[in-house]
Each structure stands twice: as structure tokens, then as C-alpha cells.
Amino acid sequence: MLFIKFTFLAAVVAGLPSSTNLAARQGCTSPRLRKSWSQATVEERLAYLEAAVCITKKPSRLGMHPNATLHDDFAYTHAMLDFDIHQFAGFLPWHRYFVMVYEKALQDCGYKGTAMYWDWVADSSDPANAAVWDPVTGFGGNGQGTENTGNFAGPIQDGPFKDFRPLYSGTALEQHGLCRAWSRGNPANDDKDLFGHRYTPQIVAEVLATDSSYDAFREALEGGPHQAVHFGIAIGNGRGRIGDMVPSSSPNDPIFFLHHTQVDRLWWIWQQADESRTNAYDGFHRLPPNAPEGEQGPPVTLNDVLAMRDLAPDAKVLDVMDTRNANLCYEYPL
Ligand SMILES: [Cu+2]
């Protein structure tokens, strides 16, 4: 009896996972460690890039259009589901699963590593010179000039995706050069720093300190630093047209996945702070824009479905809450 009591107490004190989580963790004995892009070796970065280029050349799984590639499938699926995956609790688990599906696609292209993250907090004082924008060991840099048609500005000029032409703008067909449009140092613009002043270590520490509820944390992260990085990359030049990271087809830009792996890492860090956060999930579903004002949708649950359409099998929120479960089995450096 005393022993049982002691074990229980010790588990509480050490913040060990509950028995449910422990059962789900069987089969994940050595979780893979997801690395920061700037801390990966050159060989690891080149291997990742080679597989990411491979995805832009593989045929589509969805078969929506004869010119579509597997990469276009990611943008199209994200754009189709836009309303169902943003601005409510489901944002974090859905994007966690989406990054997993992309990581699997990289591995199907021969990549042996894991998803990597762009630690934009560490680079927030000078994000335009981050390692991720390197023309050889990164994703290429800013765009220049204007795309001659459509909604986009600033086709990129260098890097492994220079000749990649995404097929979609939102869910509409609009093939174009991959565009980034951050300010090129116009001191009149608030965005001269790729909005880095909106995701400083101090600001992100405040987001991570949110402890009133899961959904309050989700909202602070999604509406704050997450959104600032999207907008910083894609509307900085203030020309009215935009880069690929803003429309609902934002996975067009392969940097999307490093951005969202970082968002996933911040959620993971928040979850690590307290064992009860492993399965912390609350908030409400969104109602369509024409719903009566002040009404909210039904409460979210861990059994809610994470739809992936034809890109991958659907999952449940509960399947992705614990990155140490057998399906996910990864961690980030602490
Ligand atoms: Cu998204």
C-alpha cells in the first residue's frame, strides 16, 4: 500500500505521463529528434532540399489537374480546408498532422531525416539573413519585381525552387513563379525586418506563458507570431499584390513546412511545461460567416476528425496530441 502511494506521488511530482499516455507510447522507444535548419549539417540540409524538390516533380495523388504535382496537392488540400483548419482549436493538431504527411512524402523521396524547423524566434533580429534563405543550402531568398499576371508579386530569383511554378492561388488555377515579397529595407515600412519585431524572444515567451486554456494559447500563437511570419514573407513590399505565403494556398512555398514545424515545436514546448497539457484541448468549432452574430459552434473534442481529403487518411485529434505516441514518435530539443 505504501509502495503504491509512493509511486503515485512520485509520478505526480515528476510530472510523468498518465497511464493512458504510457500505453500509447509503447512502440515509440527512441523518438526521432526534429532539428533546427540552422543547426542541421550542410549534408542534412541538402538531403532535405533534394527531397523537397522531388515532391514538386512527382505526379499528383489527387488528380485534380493534368499539370498538378504532389506539391500542388498539399497547397490545394490546405486551401480546400481553409475554413475548417484555421482560427479555432483545430489549427494546431491539423497542422501537426499535415507536417507529418509532408515528412512522409519527403521520406518517400528517399530522405532519411525528419521534418526541420525554422527557428524564427532566434532569427527575429535579422530574419532576412536567416540560413533558410541561402541560395544553395536553403530555400532561396526574396522575390524581385512583379509577376506579370495574376495576384502575385516577387518571383524568387535563386535557390532550388527558382523554376518551380505552383499551380494554385487558393483553390483557383493560376500557375505562377513562386513569389516572396518582403520589404527590401524601405525604412518607411513597418515590415523592413520581415515583421521580426512581432516574433521576438520576449513576445514568444509571453505566448508560451499563456496558461488560462489550450485555446487561449492556440489563439495567441496563431494570431500572433504564426501570422506575422506568413505576412512578413509575403506582403512586405506593400504593392498590393502578394507572395505565396499569404493566400490559403500558402503551402505553395516549401518554407511553409519549416514555419509550421516551428509552430508545432512551440506547441510541444507549451505541452512539456505541464503533464496535464499533453491532452489539453478545448474551445469551439467555427460557424459559417453567415451565422447569427454572437453564436458559437459546438465544443471541440479529442474525437474530432482531422480531414486530409484524398492526400492521406483522416486522423483524430487524440492521435496527434502526444508526439511520443507510436504514430508520431518525435521530439524537439529542449
Ligand atoms: Cu494553415
From TrEMBL:
The residues covered by the Tyrosinase copper-binding domain are 86-103, 253-264
Record bears the keyword NAD: no
Task: Tell me one GO molecular function of this protein.
Answer: oxidoreductase activity
Annotated signal sequence is 1-15
Does the keyword Nucleotide-binding feature in the UniProt annotation?
no
Q: Pfam families, from UniProt?
A: Tyrosinase
Any idea which UniProt keywords this protein has? Copper, Metal-binding, Signal
**Name of the protein this chain belongs to:** Tyrosinase copper-binding domain-containing protein
Q: What is the lineage of its organism?
A: Eukaryota, Fungi, Dikarya, Ascomycota, Pezizomycotina
